[in-house]
Amino acid sequence: MTSKPNPNGMPAARASAAGRFATLTFERDVAAPLSVLWQVWTAPAARAVWSAPTPSVTVEFLEADTQVGGREVSLCKVEGQPDIRCECGWLELQPARRSVNYEVVSSGGVTQSAALVTADFSGSDEQSRLVVTVQLASLAEDMRAGYRQGFDAGLDNLAGVARRTMVLQRVIRAPRSVVWNTWMNPETLPQWWGPDGFSCRTQRIDLRTGGEWVFDMIGPDGTVYPNHHRYIEVRPEERIGYALLWGENGPKHADAWASFEDQDGATKVTLGMVFSTEAEFQTAKGFGAIELGLQTLGKLERFIQSR
Questions:
Q1: Mean pLDDT throughout 18-31?
Q2: Do 260 and 283 share a structural domain?
Q3: Which residue has the higher pLDDT, 299 or 54?
């Protein structure tokens, strides 16, 4: 693109951009633990659930690497309109304290805006708070109103998602490669999956991106619980993202992920689930889903230690 000079000697396009800098601040009090809010903010599987500002917008994630130096690329799609590309690069990640990322928005190959996004977290086991500061430079046009609308809607979605998200963590005394290979192995996964006293009966299993695991969980009293996991993302030794269905091709009841991090020779495993509704989340909590999920991670560790 060529630009015409102005009396100040600055190209017109750059001069107009110079007048479109803005600092926007967004604050949310969230009825969820701080640890959960952090996971919902950073985990790609959770971000995919809340990132679309309205139901008319579809967000497609092309890549997501949530670590310092990593980036996330997504397309916002609205029927009848050009796709909007958003590239997010992670500059700082202090778990449950602060994240900093850049964000570049473009459409039709033209950069619309660039921003520095700082998110500060505080709170407790019951209530948390998020303050997001956006230092925005509108380039092709004034993007302030669009950013206000998009961030307000997205953060409202995030608060709702956090209220129906369950996060379980355990440090397993084994190297990450061992934990990963025990989890993502069709021979071993059915042997330890599920709470104490439960067993698995597999119909078919394919632990790859686009694959699935169709199986029954069988309780201590013989009750059969049909399950279907659809694998959306598999990043070896880093994370998996999958959908949980009630039985083969049944209704979805959660979007889930598992991440694996080195921790002093051991492996920190995080298992997260965004339930389809808050009522379903409360029902799951009521029948002890947190305790049962922690039992499952405990079985994984015991299985590894026994081999």
A1: 89
A2: yes
A3: 299
User: What are residue 303's phi and psi, to 5 degrees?
Assistant: -65, -45
Residue pair 159/289 in contact by the 8 Å Cβ criterion: no
Domain that holds residue 235: 167-305
Question: Under DSSP, is residue 153 helix (H, G, I), strand (E, B) or coil?
Answer: helix
Last residue of a domain, one of 107, 128, 163: 163
Render pLDDT for 208-231 as a digit per residue (tens, 0 to 9). 999 999 999 999 999 999 999 999
Secondary structure in 3-state letters for 44-109: HHHHHHHCCCCCCCEEEEEEECCCCCCEEEEEEECCCCCCEEEEEEEEEEECCCEEEEEEEEEECC
Regarding whether 299 and 178 lie in a shared domain, the answer is: yes
Instruction: Note whether 66 and 200 are same-domain residues.
Output: no
Residue with tokens 């977290």: 121
Instruction: Indicate the burial class of 29 (C-beta count within 10 angstroms; 0-12, 13-18, 19 or more).
Output: exposed
What does the pLDDT read at residue 140? 84
Q: How far is CA 232 from CA 49, 140, 162, 207, in A?
A: 13, 35, 21, 10
C-alpha 104/C-alpha 48 separation (Å) is: 18
pLDDT tens-digit map of 157-167: 999 999 999 99
Please give the structure tokens belonging to residue 293.
């999920």
Domain membership flag for residue 8? no
DSSP percent split of the chain into helix, strand, coil, nearest 5: 25, 45, 30
For the chain, the first-to-last Cα distance in angstroms comes to 64
Instruction: Choose the weakest-confidence range: 6-15, 284-293, 294-303.
Output: 6-15
Identify whether residues 196 and 229 lie together within a single domain: yes
Is a pLDDT exceeding 90 seen at residue 14?
A: no
Cβ distance 37 to 162 under 8 Å?
yes
| Helices 144-162 & 34-42 angle (0-180, nearest 10) | 130
- Residue 20 is predicted with a pLDDT of 84
Mean pLDDT of 18-38: 92
Position 9 scores a pLDDT of 35
Hey, what are 247's tokens? 């039985």
